[in-house]
Amino acid sequence: MREQTVDVAVIGAGTAGLNARRAAEKAGAHAVAIDPGPLGTTCARVGCMPSKLLIAAAEAAHAVREARHFGVHAGEPRVVPGEVMGRVRRERDRFVGFQLKDAKALSERGLLIDGRARFVAPNELAVGDDLRVTARRAVVVAVGSAVRLPPILARLESSRVIDSDKVFELEAIPERLLVVGAGPIGVELGQALARLGSRVTLLCADGKVAAIRDPAVLAAAKSALAREMTLHTRSNLEAAEERGDEVWVRFRGEDGEVSEGTWPLVLAATGRAPRLSGLELERAGVELDDKGRPREFDKTTLQCGEAPVFIAGDAAGLRPLLHEAIDDGQIAGRNAATFPEVLPGERRAPLSIVFTDPQVAFVGRRFDSLDLSTCSIGQVDFGDQGRARVMAKNHGLLRVYGADATGALLGAELVAPAGEHLAHLLAWAIQSELTVDQVLRLPFYHPVVEEGLRSALIDLRSKMSAKTGGATSRKSSGP
Predict the structure, then answer these.
(1) Could you tell me which residues come within 8 angstroms of residue 467 by beta carbon, excluding any fewer than 6 positions away?
(2) How is 410-458 classified by DSSP, letter by letter?
(3) pLDDT in tens, 173-232
(4) Which residues fall within 8 angstroms of residue 445, CB to CB, at 6 or more apart?
(5) Count of alpha carbons within 13 angstroms of residue 118, beta-carbon side
(6) Range with lowest mean pLDDT among 98-102, 132-136, 223-227
């Protein structure tokens, strides 16, 4: 049995893990990452990048169809699935290649160990069958997440049921597609495949679409998406079986009405779960809940209870987004290097974007966290917003939230054209602690989509003033 002693061991070499190893090293620790492969981050291999490549192809096809609105008649685009998916995979592999190059460099320096790790003691890991790694200070768990299929679909073990990791290996665009799950992944992939020629049915049970919590924004998003897909957003999957070259599915709506149908392909987009099984975290002194997750960990330091174990990235399940995984890794790696001395990490304003058309985004405080007796909501409908109409993308709704007593901008939920850019402006304003008045004193060019944000903020200021009789307190700092 080979033995190796380091200061910090990081289980996982994805976005969070690599940033944790780097942060620990920067803090003066000898740190190694351990991963059995395949290497390359979730984002590059099966997440952000290949999905955006598919969406880009879908947007190109959609732009051809929509050109008639401008008097430009190009006809129905000819989508060549092999060429579409070929580009998706080529560019994906290019992004993954950058990750693999970095991983190879780490491996050559002895800082990346190939193998599957599990705890045998609080500071000791077994890697495979022939290596023990002792971490003098602490261990960072950054094992990422794995797709999860509903049991009804998992039991089929059918090649006609795929998950979001496998969708990028398609050689053809199915004529008809059932997407089970209407979270960010489901709606992004569903709309993209619909624009590439598939007749898509989208199914979920909880009534939510794209993780939207604001009911008005949710209604606007459903209205926009229903133009391209058949939505069943309050329907429970009851049964499924393979019948010849199709999959038969039965589901029940909240009104009790039963529907059924057959599809040549079913895409399960029901989310991802932390990949914690097999780690034997309890041997590290980490108490687990009934789902096999740490029963308690400090969300500011990422420490699991009192154990010398920190958890980061998708494994932590806090904000499963790449920029948050980077921050998680840096916080966990630094604290692992200085353990038992740990410090809370600095976090950014919450920001999440869903790349549908129109785009969905959430910034800062969410609707269901507001006390509407002390907060107001301003909004703008993009149906008549100038630049949106110019581009023939006049669909969507932006709702901004503010504190009546202080005039602070608290958060927003939106479904809007150029939503990714609106969301960034809002996130920067919120993190900078600007009031609504201060944001409105910033420049807004004409004609731009951002003028819609100004309209929503003016509406918000008016409503706050009406509730406070114009006596709303304003911060004196800033512009």
Answers:
(1) 376, 404
(2) EEEEEEETTHHHHHHHHHHHHHTT-BHHHHHTS---TT-THHHHHHHHH
(3) 999 999 999 999 999 999 999 999 999 999 999 999 999 999 999 999 999 999 999 999
(4) 451
(5) 11
(6) 98-102
- Pure H helices in 343-404: 386-390
Query: What are the counts of helices (DSSP H) followed by strands (DSSP E) for the chain?
Result: 12, 22
Structure tokens at 224: 């926009």
Nearest partner of 274 among 205, 325, 225, 239, judged by Cα: 325
Q: Which two tokens stand for residue 367?
A: 């609707």
d(CA 13, CA 196): 34
Q: Cβ–Cβ contacts within 10 Å for residue 300, how many?
A: 14
* Average pLDDT of the chain, as a whole number: 95
Classify residue 88 as exposed, middle or buried by CB count within 10 Å of its CB (0-12, 13-18, 19+). Answer: buried
Digit-coded pLDDT (tens) for 48-92: 999 999 999 999 999 999 999 999 998 899 999 999 999 999 999
428 half-sphere exposure, CB direction, 13 A CA radius: 9
pLDDT-derived band at 258, boundaries 50, 70, 90 = very high
List the structure tokens of 79.
Answer: 């989508």
Query: How far is 52 from 233, CA to CA, in rounded Å?
Result: 24
Pair 48, 186: CB distance under 8 Å: no
In contact, 171 and 322? CB cutoff 8 Å: no
Q: Judge contact between 366 and 217, C-beta under 8 A.
A: no
Cα(first)–Cα(last) distance of the chain, in Å? 64
